[in-house]
């Protein structure tokens, strides 16, 4: 039987050169990883400057810069409940230098036909903080309580103007829940984020501000807005604004959903090198405890709520199930895709469905 006597045909010097070349090739990925991040990281926020997502992403970028040793350039690309920013990041190089700053695991996008990627399958999300929905009015508003707004909507269906951060966004979802459980109809007025939605109330463009308490807090403290309710089951004590009444005092069926608000989430493509994703996870766990960051959370009435890996995957899938079916059953005009066609289970079926076939957690 013939054999290839390669050793006899290769000189020792040539063999050493070949071995060194092979070894350096094998080490290239490790060397590249050891240098990550190699340059500036770009974080693109899907909502307007000054809103909750923007505040959290800019806040967390500071300790992350120190931990990673590279600058993080934060920009805003608002529109279509973060679909524009999502698509932009999705098309960037898969090298760990492009991050998506969004909210709620992008749970709004598939049912509205705004993006085809699946939150728990195509992205690795890192939940950083949570928010609480709140409704407020100008001090001279005729609506003294949340009940007054509901009664007005019953008398004048579709005429009471309520702002939101975008049709199909988190604050619009809160309005849809009030409509569903109170059997009323509002006129929802969309803006490009919670901050513009709040300013709309100050300018008198809407009757009611629907945004996050963190986006209203400075105006509440200054007396420029008056709170009607926060989407909690118990009163919420806020320094400088007093005790804010819970929405369940007016809509008891919202108790099962309270507290209700946004999840402020950082997203990266799931096909990025696992070592990069876990490095971000490790540093993020340190960054959320940074004193400057935690002081900002307290001041803005935001809440640390870190979730990553399989825990974040599960919450991404669960919240998408609730939202997608709410939008579809409420016949939201932008809900263009039947959740069943997307393989999204009904909320009551989620526990039996999760984890779905083929799901692979990264950690």
Question: What's the SSE blueprint?
Answer:
Blueprint: H1 6-9, H2 12-34, E1 41-45, H3 52-68, E2 72-76, H4 83-90, E3 98-103, H5 119-122, E4 123-130, E5 133-137, H6 146-155, E6 161-164, H7 170-182, E7 187-190, H8 194-202, E8 209-212, H9 213-222, E9 226-230, E10 236-238, E11 242-244, E12 263-269, H10 274-287, H11 291-300, E13 303-307, H12 309-329, H13 350-353
Helix pairs in contact: 3-10, 3-11
Please describe what this structure looks like:
The structure is a single chain. This protein is α/β, with parallel strands linked by helices and about 375 residues long. The chain folds into 2 domains: about 40-130 and about 260-355, D-Maltodextrin-Binding Protein, domain 2 (3-Layer(aba) Sandwich); about 135-255, D-Maltodextrin-Binding Protein, domain 2, CATH 3.40.190. It has 13 helices and 13 strands. The strands form 4 sheets. Strands 2-1-3-12-4-13 form a 6-stranded mixed sheet, with helices on both faces. It has a 3-stranded antiparallel sheet with strand order 8-5-9, sandwiched between helices. A two-stranded parallel sheet has the order 6-7. Strand 6 (about 160-165), helix 7 (about 170-180) and strand 7 form a beta-alpha-beta unit. The radius of gyration is 24 Å and the shape is globular. Mean pLDDT is about 90; it is low at about 1-30.
